[in-house]
Design a protein that fits this description.
- The chain starts with 7 loop residues before the first helix and ends with a strand.
- The longest helix has 12 residues.
- It is mainly beta and 288 residues long.
- The strands form 4 sheets. It has a 5-stranded mixed beta sheet with strand order 3-9-8-5-6, with no helix packed on it.
- β1 and β2 form a beta hairpin.
- 11% of the residues lie in helices and 39% in strands.
Length: 288
């Protein structure tokens, strides 16, 4: 089922296993109240092998979703918004019937969730969520190449209307705009803590997966390695966001040490099914 899975498919699991957790993952400290008019509510999603512990219901508005990976494998959160009348049972039934290259049903819409930190790490995403029925899904596979969703790693989430004023968005200091097939980053990311404001201005869904490159490796090395899966991976996962649709905006805290990094979109193209990295959607950047 081509639900815009990221390359998280087999590759990112190996990245996590080989990357280790000795270095600090992306900072997921909640945005302080001083930086916003009101602090968004924080809802924690605990990922395990292979399930989520998360609230059944949250309130609509500006909220922070904090992913804590307590599993031994890599996990992310892809949020799927379902049209009215559709449920998680409908999604499960559809996934079992679809072929690997089938497009998602028209009643499924990608909403950004926290992308893959290493096991033991955290990543958070702040965004304005509308009322409705949603599903939290992990599409990353295990070593047996079975996606975690097929092992039961999906959870229904109901978002109910707010009864009071919603919080203001965080104050971002770096703007990231996604297009087909590139990112514009203003200003460039420097070492330390930042809040990224990520907007999708493209015609289709995109993700922002951040990886720290091993010494001497380039952004292209990881893209090549994903296709071949030979030898140790040339990078380790840091985090970012999973796929989100055109017009969406999210806020992501990061805390990067100096070094070489890559940003990638490994989602399949809506037109020809090729990964967006094959269309050139990868970008190397130096953090000083």
């Amino acid at each position: 089922m081509r639900l815009r899975f990221s390359f998280a498919a087999a590759a990112v699991g190996v990245l996590a296993a080989c990357g280790g957790t000795s270095e600090k993952p992306a900072d997921t400290t909640a945005v302080t109240a001083a930086s916003v008019a009101a602090t968004p509510a924080v809802y924690t999603i605990v990922a395990k092998d292979f399930s989520y512990e998360a609230p059944d219901t949250i309130t609509a508005g500006m909220v922070t979703l904090r992913l804590v990976n307590q599993g031994t494998e890599l996990h992310h959160v892809q949020i799927l918004k379902l049209d009215d009348g559709k449920t998680v049972a409908d999604l499960e039934a559809g996934m079992k019937q679809m072929k690997p290259d089938s497009p998602p049903p028209p009643w499924v819409h990608e909403v950004a969730g926290p992308n893959s930190p290493v096991p033991g790490g955290e990543q958070s995403v702040t965004q304005d969520l509308a009322p409705g029925n949603y599903v939290l899904v992990c599409f990353i596979p295990s070593a047996d190449k079975v996606p975690h969703a097929m092992k039961g790693m999906m959870k229904a989430l109901t978002i109910v209307p707010a009864t009071s004023a919603t919080a203001a968005p965080p104050t971002a200091d770096i703007a990231v705009k996604m297009t087909d097939y590139a990112w514009t980053v203003t200003p460039e990311i420097t070492a330390g803590a930042h809040v990224l404001k990520i907007e999708n201005e493209a015609a289709q869904a995109h993700e922002l997966f951040i990886a720290q490159l091993a010494p001497g490796k380039t952004v292209a090395d990881l893209a090549t390695w994903v296709g071949e899966m030979k030898g140790p991976p040339p990078a380790k996962p840091i985090g970012g966001i999973s796929g989100m649709m055109k017009g969406a905006t999210v806020y992501v805290p990061v805390n990067l040490e100096p070094g070489e990094y890559g940003m990638y979109c490994f989602l399949p193209d809506a037109k020809n099914g090729k990964l967006h990295v094959e269309h050139g959607m990868m970008r190397q950047f130096t953090v000083k």
